[in-house]
Amino acid sequence: MHASFKGLLCLGFALATSASFAQTKLRAWNIHPEGYPVTEAMKSFAEDVGNVTKGKYQVEVFSNGTLGDQPKAVQMLKNGEIDIAEFSSGPLSDAVPGIKVLNLPFLFKDSAHMFKHLDGKLGERFAANLKSSGFVVVGWYDGGARSFYCVKPINSVADLTGKKIRVQQSDIYIEMVKLLGATPVALPFKDVLGALQQDQVDCAENNLPSYESTGHFKVAKNVYVTSHVISPEALVVSVKLWGKLDKDEKAAVMAAGAKSALLMRDLWNKRVLSSLDATTKQGAIFVKLRDASPMVRRMGPLYGKYMTDPKTREELLTIVAD
Ligand code: BDP
């Protein structure tokens, strides 16, 4: 074989090889620390995406909100500045009003009830809403049951009156706290511990794993177990990234997302129990809300608003009926 022809062949082979191994690094935003169910499930998703695309896409998970707080990250994902993220329905619904109802207090009975709907037709509808705003849902994660916790003892709904309560940056949460006769204080997640320590807020509200992982339980020892919101969370991919994937890659990313969601839910259930155990052992006191009806009655204006809106009425009726 002529030497220059052989050289060309080699060059062609080298180019083809480097093209097939061209790697795209993807950034995945996460607010939680190492070991948290969300973090572990996202890492498993990242690994699966790397494997199924044979290294073409390499996902790096940036935990602890290092790429920015949640409202900022929601905008970054929408604009395609980050590629993947896991968001709570609260801040996410500020960018996607079509999913606001998911934050309504006392809507879902428990996580099983929530996933019955999110894994079905209603989930597809919310996902379509999210997609049209720039967020492609690849997995519904569990945000668990959120309850109030305060520095001082709370034994009744009336004890929440007049309290300054930290909430997520989200309309429904702000309105809910106002309807309890308390003052909502919207703060980034990472600032809540300091705000509790420095008496800038009296209470906050969250699920048990976050109550434990943030150390809030060390300051706000009094948990009033209201489970007022059963909150979904979503693993989402930017529409910008989604548009670059071919059909097979889309299917593979969806499958990896669904798999990670199942893993997350399993880790979550275990973590709720271990967080209850750990925080109780370290002095947290749990008072159960015996009768939710007085609290539900106060939420009347919120329900009225979403029931009279024809866009959300049908969704609400579907959830409440089943
Ligand atoms: C946690 C959610 C996280 C929220 C946080 C909060 O997983 O996404 O940022 O609550 O209250 O439970 O800000």
Please, could you describe this protein's structure?
By secondary structure, the chain is of the alpha/beta class. It has a single domain, classed as Bacterial extracellular solute-binding protein, family 7 (D-Maltodextrin-Binding Protein, domain 2, 3-Layer(aba) Sandwich). Helices cover 49% and strands 20% of the residues. Strands 1, 2, 3, 4, 7, 8 and 9 form a 7-stranded mixed sheet that branches. Helix 7 links the parallel strand 5 and strand 6. The model is unreliable at 1-19 (pLDDT under 50). Beta-D-glucopyranuronic acid binds at residues 31, 70, 88, 143, 168, 189, 206-207, 210, 233.
Summarize the structure.
With 322 residues, this protein is an alpha/beta fold. It is built from 14 helices and nine strands. β1, α2 and β2 form a beta-alpha-beta unit.
Low-confidence stretches: 1-19
Cα(first) to Cα(last) distance is 74 Å
Cα shape: globular
Q: Note the run of SSEs as H and E.
A: HEHEHEHHHEEHEHEHEHHEHHH
How much is the average pLDDT?
Answer: 93
Please tell me the total number of domains.
Answer: 1
Which compounds are bound in this model?
beta-D-glucopyranuronic acid
The CATH C-level name is Alpha Beta
Summarize the main sheet: 7 strands, mixed
* Second CATH tier, the architecture: 3-Layer(aba) Sandwich
Q: How much of the polypeptide forms β-strand, as a percent range?
A: 15-25%
Q: Structural class, from helix and strand content?
A: alpha/beta
Total beta strand runs = 9
CATH topology: D-Maltodextrin-Binding Protein, domain 2
Range of helix content: 40-55%
How many individual helices?
14
Name the quaternary structure.
Answer: single chain
